[in-house]
Design brief:
Elements (H helix, E strand, L loop, with lengths): L3 H13 L4 H19 L8 H15 L2 H8 L5 H16 L25 H28 L25 H23 L14 E8 L16 H18 L8 E3 L13 H14 L3 E8 L5 E10 L2 E8 L13 H7 L2 H5 L3 E2 L7 E4 L2 E7 L6 H9 L4 E6 L9 H16 L3 E5 L5 E3 L5 E4 L6 E8 L6 H5 L2 H33 L20 E2 L2 E2 L24 H7 L6 E7 L6 H11 L4 E6 L6 H11 L3 E5 L6 H14 L4 E4 L11 H7 L5 E5 L6 E3 L3 H18 L11 E4 H5 L12 H12 L4 E5 L1 E3 L10 H18 L27 E3 L27
Parallel strand pairs: 1-2, 2-3, 4-6, 8-9, 9-10, 16-17, 16-19, 17-18, 20-23, 21-24
Antiparallel strand pairs: 1-13, 3-4, 4-5, 7-8, 10-11, 11-12, 14-15, 19-22, 20-22, 23-25
Length: 861
Amino acid sequence: MWPLAPLAVAVLTLTVRGRRLRASYGLGLLFSLAFLLPLLRFVSFVGADGWIVLATAEAAILAVVAPATTLAYRLPAPWLWAGAAWVGQEALRGRAPFGGFPWGRLAFSQPEGPYTPLAALGGAPLVTFAVATTATLLATTFLHLRTAPPGSSRQGTGGTGQDGTPDGTPRPAAHRRVALPAAATAATALALTLAGLAVPLPTTPQHGTLRLAAIQGNVPEAGGYDALGEAFQVTANHVAGTEKLAADVRAGRTPQPDLVLWPENSSDIDPLTNPTAHAALTRAATVAGAPLLVGAVLDGPGDRHVRNAGLVWTADGPTGDMYVKRHPVPFAEYLPGRALLEKLISRFAQEMPNDFLAGTGHGAIAVAGTTIGDVICFEVAYDGLVRDNVDRGAELLVIQTNNASFGRKGESQQQLAMSRLRAVEHGRATVQVSTSGQSALIAPDGTILDQTGLYEAGVLTAQLPLRTTHTLATRLGIVPEMVLTALGALAMLAALATSRRTATAVTSAASTPGSALGGTPDAPAGTTAGGDTASRPADTGSTGSTGGDQPHPARASQPATDTDHKRRGVEATRVVVCVPTYNERDNLPDTARRLRTANPAVDLLVIDDASPDGTGEIADRLAADDSHIHVLHRAGKSGLGSAYIAGFTWALQHGYDVIVEMDADGSHQPEQLPRLLDALAGADISIGSRWIPGGTVHNWPRRRLILSRGANAYVRAALGVPLRDATAGFRAYRADVLRARDLDLVASQGYCFQVDLAWRAWQAGFRVVEVPIDFVERERGASKMSRTIVAEGFWRVGWWALTSGRRGPRRAATASPATPTATTRNPAPATSSIPAPATPDPADAGVDTGQPPTSAPAGRP
């Protein structure tokens, strides 16, 4: 009953709106259990404990959508962000833990609904988004209507209402103020519900047709572990079904099929090694007069290992074309942590003696003059597995499944709903063939052409269209899910930040005496208790420039002098440039030569991760010829962050005052290093930025530009750090910054290492500035960027945002308005600096000193 999905989500939305996040999660958990326990009751054949544990674990993940919805209502257009949050929750649940369990997605409730055609545009994620967004719009409509003022039917009392009209008189203007927003949101919900009807779903053949026969041989028992009966019994049932098909063909009642489909596990004995099973399949293919696609359990490789496979079988035997299920189901087809769990739960050893191994190939199989996309059982719930077959040329989809053990508890019908959605998503005719039902033939628009019942033998035949064009959903792939998930995540972070700022402002106003809302008597109107005006400390003598210096609180009552500035500069300091290398033999000599020529007083430390191409040996030769070059050899490649930590530790041990990061590949210009060093005259960290005015990027492909821009926008939004290029790798640190951080506790490795150090230092109160640089893409060698690095950055930054609440830098105590204070000259042209108004506290940088914070020496942060 497809309308119940948006209605249920609307009720949840109304329930959690305005709640505290913890209470919202609790209510979401109740909602999720009420949904998933009935939905997954088919799992109870393994025992009530397995059913309840699975439902509870999935409910714990699904429940996060409740506080996400609560947060969405703290932002404008909550319907948009709540809808995106539902997509993000499903993306998470479909991937973790143990590879995910996507059962119960909103999209899967819609095979009969008007939302279904949207799957052809953006897949299951877009359908989920439409359903959840409709639900939030319905909830918003209800909220508008609930605020409607009483009308003329109210009895007069001789007084006036809150809007100034006498009791008992109509209030048309007030009604309009409520009715118009309500009508608008309701109309939007209706339009979104019906939008899918405008999406064309073509079903005509593009590469001819294929006549198929799907055999449902049935099983001896309707559910449970023993549903398949004795060994070979289910195979014999499917041989009998195929012989019945052959008899109908000979009698002229059924046309000759081009391909005969058997379900998953229809050969429960390995036909490649068992002569009886081999002969039975060969006989079935012979009488059918067509090749068979057989679902078989294959032995090995290795002891207690089996495989779940789809095989092509002809009258001459197996052809060798095979698909092995890529996503076996944990705790059903394999046991994670078997050695431990068998000791804890003894029945596992008897009920699950073997582990199904995951296949590594794809399911696009050439057979009967076309290419079919084979998907086995639960794999139909995973977007990427089905899409991969279509991307590889599948003109028709086949879902081989074995529902025998699940009884009459809804699993087969739920799976059929997914198969119908996949047909629409990819514009492919689809066949679901089951041992015990429901088997079905599905047109490319999701229409069921024919189907069997549960636990009954049957043969389905039809001439199905073969289609070759890709829908927009197929072409876009994972993009809609990624975009919607990112929107939802960013919205949640923004809502948390907004809530935190609001709570801080209210608390500050309530706790500070002096003004109507507790403002301090010394602060101008509009400032908070912390002395902030437009996010800047008040009464510090600053010029109002974003590059203005803030005095150390220990020296707040003393005028700053030129000596103070000189001591913060880089005069008479020792500088070392740390350059990590891995397979950079073609770049290192030129980079070292340019660095030493442009900066003769600066040392170079090469940190080599045992480069296989001999970079380390080249570095040793360079060091032998130049006393300013040093080499640090490491045992192997273990990440950019780890390499820099090793280099920083070495530099601190050798007494360097300024430590610089720089790449070996020539992308950073050594001739521009003086810009970074000059900027340290008024800062603790200087970052060579590509994205501030004056910065440039040369020869980067568009995807890298988009990735870098997007990553830095994500960092700013998630962490609140006002840097344009937080991921930049050309930067200079005063040694004090690195001493204040326990480097052994830094876990980030990829480019998020750069974010980690800059953000933590900014939080601790150190001054961070950006100076423009020219970034030039490497000419030689391969970039180290990878999906793993991107993924690490995404989840680490998100985690930091959630756990820190986007906490900004520590604030300094406000000086007396009459106190003369220093201003800092702009450290470099076109820089973007971040004032540090408080003493950096090592505890804020992730260091537990065991002692209360102490002031740094004068002239140091």
